[in-house]
Amino acid sequence: MFTISRRQLLVSAAAPLAAHAGLVQAQGKDTTIIVGYPPGGSLDAMARVLAQRLGARRGQTVIVDNKPGFSGNIGAQYVAKAAPDGGTLLMTALTTYAINQKLMGASMGYDLLKDFQHVAIVGYLPNVLIVPASLPVNSVQEFVRAAKAKPGSLSIATTGNGSLEHIAGEMFKRATGTDLLAVPYKGSTPGVTDLIGGQIQAMFVNTTTAINNLKTKRIKALAIAGPNRVAALPGVPTLAEQGVKMSNDVVSIFGIAAPAGTPAAVVDKLNADLNAVLREPEVNARFSGLGVDVATESAAHARERIAREVAVWDKVIRETGISL
């Protein structure tokens, strides 16, 4: 009896020690943050800031590895299949992935809710409605009047069928009763180039893109497509302030995710470290400069917010009738 009890006691004592050892091992090894898009974009910029500061905080090497392609899904697939030990993370473009989930279904190669342990929401990046500086309008109301005066004569750029920009444009058309010609591009850069040149009259772009191009004075920002004004664009009102109520705000949500099955202790520690990094004044300033509103919430909040995002865009896509 004594031998059995002693063995049971030793096993019981070893269990938490093993869990602790796993956490220590996860913290001690190098970490890779996968970005499913090319270098140079706002998602990549945020990932690199987080990698630098997270590595310093955890005393390890944290690198960013870009795996672009298939609307961000190649990188997401890679992380979904990685070892669930906290060593491989995904910098998530959650709004795009939520839209993909509805439009692509099983062809995405993973399930956004089932195949990841969502660690944290790190920021919100609203979209902005921009027009060429040469277009003689200075508000959404003036743009709508110009569009209604000559139905079908003004065009709006998208970054492909089913993209966030495409859906934003369709919601805008429905909310304002305008007939705009949607012109697809392979990315925001060629779309903005043609907008500056006057071939395109409007486009929804993320705040970072708007900020960078406003410096050239070749575009105008007419409205923020989110619930609030953006600190980096203080003079730009929201769509709602100008009387346009779309069926949903156009705000890109970014986060960090680990493969499903990653231990709760590893997820919680990552969440705490990420939130500590995001509270650093330098990091906060870097994100604000990109037009990103920083978020510091729990992993449980991240999972709930993402489930809500999937449901919201499911509804919007059904309403607009967009399909691939």
What does this structure look like?
The protein is an alpha/beta fold and 324 residues long. It has two domains: 16-125 and 251-320, Bordetella uptake gene, domain 1 (D-Maltodextrin-Binding Protein, domain 2, 3-Layer(aba) Sandwich); 126-242, D-Maltodextrin-Binding Protein, domain 2. Helices cover 46% and strands 19% of the residues. The chain contains eleven helices and ten strands. The chain has helices at residues 2-28, 42-58, 73-80, 94-104, 140-149, 164-176, 188-196, 207-214, 264-278, 281-289, 299-320; strands at 31-35, 62-66, 88-93, 116-132, 155-158, 181-184, 202-206, 219-224, 251-259, 293-294. Strands 1, 2, 3, 4, 5, 6, 7, 8, 9 and 10 form a ten-stranded mixed sheet that branches. Helix 2 (42-58) links the parallel strand 1 (31-35) and strand 2. Helix 2 (42-58) crosses helix 9 (264-278). The protein starts with a helix and ends with a helix. Residues 1-26 have low confidence and may be disordered.
Layout of SSEs?
Layout (H helix, E strand, L loop, with lengths): L1 H27 L2 E5 L6 H17 L3 E5 L6 H8 L7 E6 H11 L11 E17 L7 H10 L5 E4 L5 H13 L4 E4 L3 H9 L5 E5 H8 L4 E6 L26 E9 L4 H15 L2 H9 L3 E2 L4 H22 L4
Parallel strand pairs: 1-2, 1-3, 5-6, 5-7
Antiparallel strand pairs: 3-9, 4-7, 4-8, 4-9, 4-10
Outline:
globular
Q: Any guess at the CATH architecture of the largest domain?
A: 3-Layer(aba) Sandwich
Q: Kindly provide the name of the CATH class of the largest domain.
A: Alpha Beta
* Number of separate helices: 11
Helical content stands at 40-55%
Integer-rounded radius of gyration: 22 Å
Mean pLDDT, to the nearest integer, reads: 90
| Straight-line distance between termini | 68 Å
The beta-strand count equals: 10
Instruction: Tell me the fraction of residues in β-strands, as a range.
Output: 15-25%
Tell me the structural class. alpha/beta
CATH homology superfamily name of the largest domain: Bordetella uptake gene, domain 1
Q: What count of structural domains?
A: 2
Give, in order, the helices and strands.
HEHEHEHEHEHEHEHEEHHEH
CATH-assigned fold name of the largest domain: D-Maltodextrin-Binding Protein, domain 2
